[in-house]
User: What shape does this take?
Amino acid sequence: MTPELQRFLDLATRPLEGHPGPRDEAKGELMARLGHSGIPFEMLDLADPLARLEAAPPEKPWRRRGALLAALFLSAGTLLTVAGFLAYQIGTMTLVSYLSFQRFARYAPDSFENKLLLHHVEKIAPDLPLGRESLAGGNGMAETGRALSRQPDDLAMLQEQVSRQIFVGAEKWDGFDEDTKERIARLDADNALWPLLQAYALLEFSIHPTAGYGRAGTRTITDEAKFQEVVRLFSEASAKPRYHDRSWSLIRRQIEAFPPERGIHDAVIVQGFSGFVTRPFTRYRYGGYPFGVMAQVRCERLVTAKDTEGLRAFLGEWRNVVQRVLESPEPVEQDTVTIFTELNAMGENIATACKDLGMAAEETATKEMLRRLPDRGYSGNPMPPELRTAAGVRLETYNTGMVDLTAAEVLPSRKTELAFFDRHVAISLALVGLVFSGLVGLEACRRSKNVKGTARGLMPLFRREDHLWIGGLGLALPWLWWWIVTRLTPLGLHRADPNEVEEGMMALMIQPAAAMILAMVLLLQTARWRWELRGGFLALGGFFPRVGWVAAALTALAIPAAGGILYFPHLNGDDKALYLLGASCMAAIGLLWLLWEGIMNLFTPRASALRPNLVMRALLPWTFAGLFSLLAAYGVSTLMERKWFANDPLLPSWTSKTHRNAFEERRAAKWLDP
Assistant: This one.
């Protein structure tokens, strides 16, 4: 043994100098590794390794361990806190999404499940007019009753209470109670809404439900007395001097009980609770158009009796009601169940009856009035193709009645949604990264004392530029490649129309997931490569070193391959799914390689454990760097979501004083005055 070799062995095993037995064993392993090179010990060139080891300062393992433990607890604590916060947000959003279904399907909410949402609402909106009782499993009647006991003259709340009485009572409801009649007579006697609301509810249960639906077809009158009461109530409504629907003012009160939204989560909560206000003329039981069927039955009877005066009187009543609704001080929602839709259905039946009785002047007048009313809640054109990509998912739900939108107006909505998606993806990937860091740390810590001591003694061979290679190839390159493909090329699914790819969520997830797998593959493969260069004389090279680079290349290609689906619009749903499955399999190759490496390291015997231990020691700090980069990406995405949401001129609730948002307000204005 040469003096240089002896000196190298002593320096490489310095961390074990207090443990003679493990140190001698470690020296023996190093001698065996040097012997694998096939070069006589006298001819080994150890000048550079000796210089590196001799120049290294005395080891202070607890400094490194303390820094790594601090990074672990800081990253894990921050990540789990943020993940818990996101889970809380997703939970509240999911609960809100079921509220409308639960109410209108007459399905009682589970109060235990809604405690989370109830707590959230009580904290941020203590003055919320409606919603708490429904969340607790009630039907809301006591809630409106208490509100009216505090403010007996609150007509918006009175309308809500009456609407809920009708909705909850269903077939048992048979008209206003005496207290309601007294309040209406005292506070709002000249409002045509009240008799129309009674007539609409009675119609649902005075006409046979199994006959034709829609404007065509007739239904059998099952309760003639109720039908005649409906006719009387409609005549009463026509004599009222005004029509005032206060549900929208109550919706605004619901919205304004919340603080201004800062992002999509807040907007979903606010929009969900605005849905607790019951819109008048909500379908209580069956489809079709009750007022339209009433007009059809009445017109058929008038035509059969050739009663032109009766039809002329009915036409006058209808025109009066239409005029009052058009003059309403509250905006009318563009909806398939609004009063305008019902009045359209009535007018068409009246025009047909006028034609049948040869009343040409009345038929012309009816059609002229019909032209002043929107038809079936639809007005305008679908969203132009050039705006579909920029509009985003939420605006796609308003895909009718566009109001001369521009790309500059719709872009903030899309950007908000992408930032919302990106921050959830960042935390999902960070959770995967935390598991990866844990496995790397486990491999670095689980080996025997002599393996870990030898690894610590050899770490000075790993140079600063080697760490830069790991950071550059393992972290910077994957995320740069993902950013270039998704942001600067047409292959980015962020830039796609949400409706172009039916499997949109799967497609959007493939690209960041492939980038994450690519980062893990390149981190491990680069660390192995750099140790092969620095410790080749110790036989630290692995088997099949090029396989990792091949796996990395295929995983990298999965990112543009997933976006390539945009160039195959002719594929049907199954073919698109197969295409995306193929792109996923490309990314899965990298995952399989990581799994293989993990299994090999798990079952590596102690005699061969030095190389994986060295690799994991070099890799561990960079896994934490990756975690912190993902947490930083979450923070940036959150700020971007808030920025774009604040600059959105259409969808936040504060952009309107009369509707839920400026888009609905503009659409209603366009709808009412085309």
Observations:
- Residues 66 and 72 are 10 Å apart (CA to CA).
